[in-house]
Write a structure and sequence with these properties.
This protein is mostly helical and 204 residues long. It has ten helices and no strands.
Length: 204
């Protein structure tokens, strides 16, 4: 690989992390509702908490922002990796992880108070594995309609994702990436899991 492509590869990975770090929920809630999202509701900057404490409109904008910051860098990575064969999949997976980790550990918030990563992961896999994305969304919607708990839907969707990614493209690399995403989402939902078990998790 020549120097130009190497720099482009490295630059997109860094850019993906920096884009993933943009805390849309924090920005929108503080600017347009005068609410410190870190001290209200669950204290999370994700779309669900923004919706609960600042309204549906700001929650929807947060969701869109978090989704797009996953989709955009992965779209660029897929375009760049198109002719790279198996190494292209590795590159795409690295960009997905960089974007996702930016959301969880945002640079602009001193690596603290990040979101749970569901919407950003959805944006990533919407581009890299669209059929798997639809399977995960179906699982999410099923749980929401049945139990009205966003956290439960997010957990099932993230658990379905690695299997769906594998069945879509038989890519060990991307399926492995989806497993990593699932484990982080599982960890970030540990408090929700406790509330689900105790029956105290709030519904939509």
């Amino acid at each position: 690989m020549d120097l130009y492509n190497t720099l482009k590869l490295a630059g997109l990975i860094i850019g993906a992390y920096m884009l993933g770090s943009i805390p849309f929920g924090f920005i929108l809630a503080n600017k347009f509702s005068s609410v410190d999202i870190l001290t209200k509701g669950s204290g999370n900057i994700g779309a669900t908490n923004v919706m609960r404490v600042s309204g549906i409109k700001l929650g929807a904008l947060t969701l869109a922002g978090d989704f797009l910051k996953g989709a955009v860098p992965v779209y660029l990575a897929c375009a760049f990796a198109e002719s790279k064969g198996p190494y292209g999949e590795i590159y795409i997976a690295i960009v997905i992880i960089a974007t996702f980790m930016g959301h969880l550990y945002p640079l602009y918030m001193k690596f603290k108070n990040g979101g749970k990563g569901v919407a950003t992961a959805a944006g990533c896999f919407f581009i890299s594995s669209p059929i798997a994305f639809l399977a995960a969304i179906a699982a999410f919607v099923f749980v929401i309609l049945l139990y009205r708990r966003v956290s439960a839907g997010s957990l099932l969707a993230s658990a379905v994702l690695p299997f769906a990614v594998w069945f879509e493209g038989h890519s060990v690399v991307l399926a492995g990436c989806a497993v990593i995403i699932f484990l982080f989402i599982l960890y970030r939902h540990k408090d929700n899991i406790r509330r689900l078990i105790s029956g105290t998790e709030p519904p939509i």
